[in-house]
Amino acid sequence: MNLIKQIGDRHLFELLRGSFVALFFRVLGVVSIFLFMKIVTDLYGTEGYGLYNTLWAILMVGAVVAKLGFDSSIVKFIAAFYAQKKFRFITQIYRKGLSWISIAGILVGVLLFIFSKQLSIGFFETDEHARLIVIIAMLVTPLSIIHFNAETLKALKNITAFSAFQNGTLLIVSLLVIGLFAIYRTLQDDIIYALGIAIVVLVPFSFILIRKGFGKRLNTNFEHVGDFPFSNGKILKTTLPMFYANSLFLIMGWADTLMISGYMDNADVGIYNGALKIATISSTILMAVNSIAMPKYAELFERNDFQLFKNFVKQTSLLILLISLPLFLVIFIFPSFVLNLVDPQFVEGKEALLILAFGHFISAISGSTIHLLNMTGKELIARNILLVSAVINIGLNFIFIPIWGITGAAIATSATTILWNLLAVFFIYRKFGFLTLPLNVKVRK
Q1: What is the mean pLDDT of each run of 10 residues along the chain (445 residues)?
Q2: What is the predicted pLDDT for the residue at 192?
Q3: How many CB atoms lie within 10 A of CB 368?
């Protein structure tokens, strides 16, 4: 309480406290990414790391389709029910989302299974990796459930539990399994087998934390409530625009990797993704702060306190800038050194790293733009911004990759990252009358 009084703003205190918890786990996640890159590259080469990234991209595409946007909308729904003190509806919206995701995940998995050979030939010019795509197909539903449960925990403001189910934890468990495999053999397929075991292990733990989270926060245990106000149609009306936005985010996030794998070999995919993972370190701050800011945006917007809402947005942007700037400077000044820390082979991606890091830094200082639109009923605007950007992204990758290789992919990705952020800043200004940039930030007294 004394710290709250010193800061003078309860919402800022929540942001700081929660963000540093989330940031702690994000830092662990970054460390696990570096460790994963180094160990996988040492054991299986950049080709093995490239193979993993292409298959991971396919899995992520499948999971985004299976989640249907419920991983985003659950945050908005729960925050709104909290603000309205309608606690008994929270477990029901969770159950509905889980049902939709399970059904969609099974359907996506079946499609991936049916077209596994065609996908293998398309990405690897051979059908020998079809068996790995079959494994990916079986992992779509469990990974989607892990993500949905993690976002539910975030909406319940259980940031520690939410943070524990990010990809860093998945990589750590995968590394433990890879270590066991490496005692006996070093086959590239083992990377995907390890990933599958890690996902299956984490699913039941996510349900345990969900049950505890509902019991602690809501004093309820999945009871049925007859007067739930939303039909499936109304739920999907909110959720599907977020699904489209998430899909477009995914297209922009993985189009470069998938298109590089189509034009170049697995080693190039590995080098590019090494640069990409390092470049996104500055965005780690944005993701950590977003984990706190998203439900708070929805909550403050529901209260109709515009001044409080505006100031919280600017506080969020300032926090992101202050923490991400030093990371960006280290990457920008010492790119070869940073890449060499992981593996000397990654130094070939120096130009790509600098270009990608710049794009991610612009994204960081722009603030939580798309998430803010999604949490305030402007899902269609967010979708349209990302649609335009995704089309441009694919076009630029198609033009630049054959000419400049992984540097061309970096230019395409960075340019469209800057584009959608600036468009979002502009439309937020038009709708709400203020810039999300960290200017004129105030602390309430």
Answers
A1: 43 56 67 84 87 90 91 81 75 89 95 94 86 95 93 80 74 90 86 93 90 66 55 80 80 82 82 84 68 72 79 81 83 88 82 92 84 82 89 93 93 94 92 80 52
A2: 92
A3: 25
Distance CA 383, CA 385 (A): 6
> What is the pLDDT, as a whole number, of residue 118?
92
| Residues 301-333 as b or e (16 or more Cβ within 10 Å = b) | bbeeeeeebbbbbbbbbbbbbebbeebbeebee
Answer whether 140's CB lies under 8 Å from 112's CB: yes
Handedness of CA 296, 167, 265, 133 (dihedral sign): negative
How far are the Cα atoms of 140, 142, 149, 347, 369 from residue 203, in angstroms, in the given order? 12, 6, 9, 37, 31
Handedness of CA 355, 414, 23, 310 (dihedral sign): positive
Under a CB-based contact definition with an 8 Å cutoff, are residues 382 and 423 in contact? no
Residue with tokens 């490239």: 50
Q: Are 326 and 109 in contact (CB under 8 A)?
A: no
pTM of the model: 0.74
CA distance 299 to 195: 36
In this structure, what token pair is assigned to residue 274?
A: 């090494």
Residue 85 burial (C-beta neighbours within 10 Å; 0-12, 13-18, 19+): exposed
Nearest to 413 by CA among 372, 363, 341: 363
Residue whose tokens read 């270590």? 179
Cα–Cα distance, 42 to 49 (Å, whole number): 10
pLDDT at 13: 56
Q: What pLDDT score does 377 carry?
A: 79
What pLDDT does 315 receive? 79
Q: Rounded to an integer, what distance in angstroms lies between the CA atom of residue 73 and that of residue 83?
A: 15
Give pLDDT, residue 440. Answer: 62
| Angstrom distances, CA of residue 174 to CA of 54, 70, 179, 207, 277 | 17, 26, 9, 20, 17
pLDDT of res. 18:
52
| Cα–Cα–Cα angle for 122, 128, 131, rounded to 5 degrees | 95
Furthest-apart CA atoms within the chain: distance in Å = 65
3-state secondary structure of 127: coil
Amino acid at 148: F
Instruction: Report the 3 state secondary structure along 95-113.
Output: HHHHHHHHHHHHHHHHHHH
Write out the two tokens for 166: 């990010």
Output DSSP code: residue 303: T
State residue 225's pLDDT score. Answer: 47
